[in-house]
Amino acid sequence: xxxxxxxxxxxxxxxxxxxxxxxxxxxxxxxxxxxxxxxxxxxxxxxxxxxxxxxxxxxxxxxxxxxxxxxxxxxxxxxxxxxxxxxxxxxxxxxxxxxxxxxxxxxxxxxxxxxxxxxxxxxxxxxxxxxxxxxxxxxxxxxxxxxxxxxxxxxxxxxxxxxxxxxxxxxxxxxxxxxxxxxxxxxxxxxxxxxxxxxxxxxxxxxxxxxxxxxxxxxxxxxxxxxxxxxxxxxxxxxxxxxxxxxxxxxxxxxxxxxxxxxxxxxxxxxxxxxxxxxxxxxxxxxxxxxxxxxxxxxxxxxxxxxxxxxxxxxxxxxxxxxxxxxxxxxxxxxxxxxxxxxxxxxxxxxxxxxxxxxxxxxxxxxxxxxxxxxxxxxxxxxxxxxxxxxxxxxxxxxxxxxxxxxxxxxxxxxxxxxxxxxxxxxxxxxxxxxxxxxxxxxxxxxxxxxxxxxxxxxxxxxxxxxxxxxxxxxxxxxxxxxxxxxxxxxxxxxxxxxxxxxxxxxxxxxxxxxxxxxxxxxxxxxxxxxxxxxxxxxxxxxxxxxxxxxxxxxxxxxxxxxxxxxxxxxxxxxxxxxxxxxxxxxxxxxxxxxxxxxxxxxxxxxxxxxxxxxxxxxxxxxxxxxxxxxxxxxx
Length: 636
Hints:
CATH topology of the largest domain: Rossmann fold
Number of domains: 2
CATH architecture of the largest domain: 3-Layer(aba) Sandwich
Structural class: alpha/beta
Strand order of the largest sheet: 13-12-11-10-9-8-15
Largest sheet: 7 strands, mixed
Helix content: 25-40%
Distance between the termini: 18 Å
């Protein structure tokens, strides 16, 4: 349970209708198997001890007594297992029969939760047998122990502060106000749903939609276990559709029409982080709820869940294409509004032959086209200097020409050398002054051209550079509108690739392909043998790692230790622990000490859930200390 991870499972076992002994044996075996793999919570289907399709047999005392005996046996036979088990059974209280879920832990029946919404439409006839449960809990005696009975029960454990379990049953989820809404408002982070959802055409899609949306709305983990093979097929077929979901994402799902156990690790810290960020998500103490403590041993959960190594980039091609179009539309629409509002006659973009300036110019062209403005009023300025290579220079020229914009070439070597004389800088000393003088000269030129042409300077810097402070203050750091400010470096590559795939202009396509193949570099140091000598990722580290760090730090407030653990999983076989840790230290240090650059960023559009605008998502003091983060990094 380290870092808030807990392994949870949804299981469907083979059953025989009304054969409680057979069903119980299979449940106990599944619990034992689950405990051996480190699963801490296992959820079985609705009425799994008897079978959901018993019909009027539910009114037979023999079946009800058998179900109760089975419940007691499951508790006794699993008492030495470090696991929480949730099973379904019919249970009579005060001369009424209820469709219940029993929570079992450490040899004890810790709670009995009745179904609140009893369906009696279409193929369902549950009100013939069952009474709707109540929220407020009372106590019933089972095997000599007082057990809370009611829907409003929260199950907690000292082993994991963020683990709070609540239960709802099948139809409860399908109603206008599912009980899980109240449960999570009272503090539940995990919802177990015992279900017997029969299969008809397309119902699986709607079932998934319900589970995904409920877990997203409630910022919770959702364990959905459904009846499967073995139920009566007199009129219905059950597919055993089991789902483990977290905050709108399906972590694991069984194959339908097979009785399977699926599992994954819920990230409870992540869920709690989301709740803390959302001030419209209300959690309050509710006196109607009973708190029941569970006994679980704290362990370090081995991660089996998939960890995306490029969290900003969808892995699915179709989703990535849609994401690319959406982002380009957001960027260009933002710029369109700014151009229209300021009545700018031109837009000025510095083009280097690199990815960032390429994307900025592509976005500017989109904005101009949407305003029906002449592309010739886009001024693309290439400013070769000491580090410019023929490859990037030619790409910048070919790129601008293929788009039909106005290209200006201004060689800044003489201006920078004069500046070196003015400030007494040794031109053979390749220090930060040598590099930044070039960046600031370029920005000065762009600003003055914009003034001269009644235009706006369009910023090219991306979010990854802003996170690392990899920008020259009042150099490329500054613009009149930063279209790339919300786009991380790993995503920019895919946006440019998307535009390359779309165009019918072969010259543009070829140029974009070569830009994509060019190493990322500011080109501020002289080339070696005509090739780029200064590669950014050799200096500050791989952007795929930094974007990973940025996402988990910003999106979920993860600790350095947890980020390292996730990165080891995501980049297994690509980077070893020492390399990841070394660059994580670089990231954390730079992220903190370079905040002053982000505190005065130009305007720019937010495009995703992570953004660094000081006016929006990230309001951090420029002089905040990162000492406690550094201390944790040194312990890793």
